[in-house]
Design brief:
Order of helices and strands: EEEHEHEHEHHEHEHHEHEH
Structural class: alpha/beta
Strand order of the largest sheet: 1-2-4-3-5-6-9-10
Helix content: 25-40%
Oligomer: single chain
Number of helices: 10
Number of strands: 10
Radius of gyration: 21 Å
Length: about 400
Amino acid sequence: MERRMLPIHGEWKHVSFENPGRFTETYGFSGSQGKVNLEGVLLRPESSSRTLLLFMHPSSTLQLLPLPRRLAALGHHVLCGGSRYQRNDTALVMENVLLDMGAYIRAARENWGYDKVVICGWSGGGSLASLYQSQAERPTIEQTPAGDPIDIAGAGLIPGDALLNLAAHYSRARLLAEWVDPSVLDEHDPDRRNPELDIYKPGYADSPTAFSAEFLAHYRAEQLKRIHRVTSRAKETLAFLRKRGGAELERGFITHRTMADPRFLDTSIDPNQRKRLWSYMGHPETVNSGPVGLARFSTLRSWLSQWSIEDTRADSLACGPSISVPFLAIECGADDAVPQPHTRLIYERVGSHDKTMHVIDGANHYFVNQPDHLDQAAQILSEWLSLRHLN
């Protein structure tokens, strides 16, 4: 039965907490005065609820996406919370974002009148949600991958009452490792490239591409080698700065060409209903060297916490077994961002006894021009929540 859509109101939410740092990571007042200030938007319908749905991404803001707004129109209270790194992940440290998420959940429980909080991991928020819930249930972290102290174990993170995984990959680091361009030979000169590994050679767009299994195996191995080279450089530079002493504590750097996944050219690899030569950010060759590619601008600490496949903790496959609360995963059948295998892999790893997975046939990553697919996803979510008395 079709449910009536309710008017929704957007309410600004501010959360502030003490979190002194050795240096300022983000421009402005977040952290520079020994405090972190977070801003979110509560999408509240004209109905009461004791359950809050928390949508949070490490660096993006989500209040303008269609799914949170549709869930609010169906009667759910939805908070789209921004981290301290919202709209700029250059210096993002995932362990700090756990503290940010924890501050929102504590405020919801202690100040805003909610009894239950459902953590909604959308896209890149999926691995954040998994890491948060696993640490809230079984805290272990005492330092960041760069070796800086951070007392996650003593932070008193409040677990969510359920976990949603929505069009989400299992790790930003894994996604980068599958997208990074292995043809780059010199990190300081993106035009020095190995032509044998350049999938964007002239003429590639003229006809459908079919990569051999042998080429793909070699390509994936070279992608990992490039990631490991950057990781080694980040670790060596941090060690150099610490050994030298002084007030220089961090550096930024550029990683060129990070959108060269053969799947965007050859749709027979991990097939779904995605379009060829297209990604959620546009044409993949353009994105490969554009300003918003994954990990384009990064600090040393952020690389280790966010992008290093050997160091990051934000990995839903690693965190999944520690999760015990009800779990729902939704895969978009024509996702043009998240690789097709990721949702199923996450679902299989989660330790919850109550877990469910759905595929929205034909849906792209953002439900662009797909109102029916959006309705289907929202109805699945709303009914799942209602059955568990989380509406």
